[in-house]
Design goal:
Blueprint (H helix, E strand, L loop, with lengths): L10 H31 L2 H30 L4 H5 L10 H9 L3 H17 L6 H37 L4 H26 L10 H28 L1 H21 L8 H15 L11 H26 L9 H26 L33 H6 L2 H13 L7 H8 L3
Membrane topology: Multi-pass membrane protein
Subcellular location: Cell membrane; Membrane
Keywords: Apoptosis, Cell membrane, Membrane, Transmembrane, Transmembrane helix
């Protein structure tokens, strides 16, 4: 394949980086606004929960960023090729550590990606592979930040509106910012994974729209069900989360993930995936993942149904009369519609590859998901591609497209993916 087709930095990548940092700043600004409103009104519990979510999200993202900074420094020749000052001030480890402690590492990554992208796109300088490398990391960090903060915050804001039976302007702004953050993450993350497809199969706007819709239609009812349950049993929602989180972390551990390059980093990743699964499906392991996806959606459907039934039986019939019947009908239908859109996407809109599938004779014939070899995008073709292919995101892309018919995992793939751990 043409190596440049999956390492070339374009103006679209630059635009996504700029919009990403703007979205990040707007989301944090709205968070501070909402927190200030809660504090001034004397709602100290909600203020504490919101600030706690902001701090938790920031700390988790900074930890991932710091782990990756340390891993990248150990890559042969990485610092020399990227140059001082391009990412988190190059070799100044102490300064980088200070920035992460001050919760500025994520923002500095955004700025670094924008600057590197500007140099490549506007000045036509070398470094396209490295600019793409940075954008891949940012897409994953935005995913983590979204489900550590935006999704829980959206649940909190919905709960506050239900609890008080009224909505303030600041709450609408917060809900809009959180929803926008989630939507942008979905598009950005999927687009980042798409760059690892062999032959760069094109994805149209229709495909992107359907992909966005099924994610939104699955996440929104889940968030609403959690908020409705919390509105009648506020004390038990924390126990519900902790119980499911432990189950999900155990399930991640059983799948033997190897995303990070250290034991501590890997357990951080597993804990974060457990949090993501509380709201949405996220594939983390190779193999036949269709069955795991069906188990997950069946479990979440059952759990959300129990939460809705609990809310319906314990709600205030007078206060909830204007919207109760509509919600109890709309939310399950929306989730089912999301599952239908997901099926439709993978049947009709999933990007098709240009070359015939490459079958591995060592794999059984009953693996419909194993169609194109990941070795076609080998990261060992040259020193540059081996050095600057983002193995973390390439691993996720292999898992994602293995599941849905674009990759198959071979022994060479496993060696490639495990070479960074």
């Amino acid at each position: 394949m043409d190596r440049g087709s999956f390492s070339k930095y374009s103006w679209i990548d630059f635009a996504f980086s700029v919009i990403g940092v703007c979205t990040f700043l707007v989301d944090w600004g709205s968070d501070i606004w909402v927190a200030t409103e809660f504090y001034c009104r004397g709602d100290f519990i909600w203020f504490g929960v919101l600030v706690g979510l902001m701090v938790l999200s920031s700390v988790v993202v900074q930890m991932f960023s710091w782990f990756w900074f340390k891993y990248d420094r150990e890559l042969p020749g990485f610092s020399a090729e990227t140059g001082a000052g391009t990412v988190l001030f190059g070799d100044k480890v102490k300064l980088s550590c200070l920035l992460h402690v001050l919760q500025l590492g994520f923002l500095c990554r955004h700025i670094s990606a924008i600057w590197q992208g500007f140099r490549v796109w506007w000045r036509k300088e070398e470094g396209s592979e490295y600019a793409v490398y940075l954008t891949h990391d940012l897409s994953m960090l935005r995913l983590i930040e979204t489900f550590c903060e935006s999704a829980p915050q959206l649940t909190l804001m919905t709960y506050v509106m239900l609890r008080t039976n009224k909505a303030r302007t600041v709450q609408f702004v917060s809900i809009a910012a959180s929803t926008t953050s989630i939507a942008w993450m979905v598009v950005d993350y999927h687009r980042s994974l798409r760059s690892f497809l062999p032959d760069k199969a094109k994805q149209g706007w229709g495909s992107s729209l359907v992909y966005f819709l099924w994610n939104l239609l699955l996440i929104a009812p889940r968030v609403a069900a959690l908020a409705l349950f919390a509105s009648v049993f506020s004390v038990f929602i924390a126990g519900h989360f902790i119980l499911l989180w432990f189950v999900f972390v155990f399930w991640v551990w059983r799948q033997k993930t190897d995303f990070m390059d250290s034991v501590g980093g890997e357990w951080l990743y597993r804990a974060t995936v457990g949090l993501i699964w509380y709201f949405s499906w996220f594939n983390v392991a190779e193999g036949r993942t269709r069955g795991r996806s069906m188990i997950y959606h069946s479990f979440i459907t059952t759990d959300s149904g129990i939460l809705l039934a609990t809310w319906w039986c314990n709600r205030d019939p007078v206060l909830t009369e204007p919207y109760a019947l509509a919600l109890i009908i709309t939310l399950p239908l929306a989730y089912l519609l999301g599952l239908l859109f997901k099926t439709l996407y993978y049947c009709c809109f999933h990007p098709k590859l240009w070359r015939p599938p490459v079958r591995d004779p060592g794999l059984p014939d009953d693996l419909p998901d194993a169609e194109v070899s990941f070795r076609d995008v080998s990261i060992q073709d040259s020193k540059l591609s081996s050095q600057f292919l983002n193995k973390r995101m390439a691993c996720h892309a292999a898992h994602f497209y293995f599941e849905h018919g674009a990759f198959k995992n071979t022994d060479s793939t496993k060696k490639t993916e495990s070479s960074h751990v």
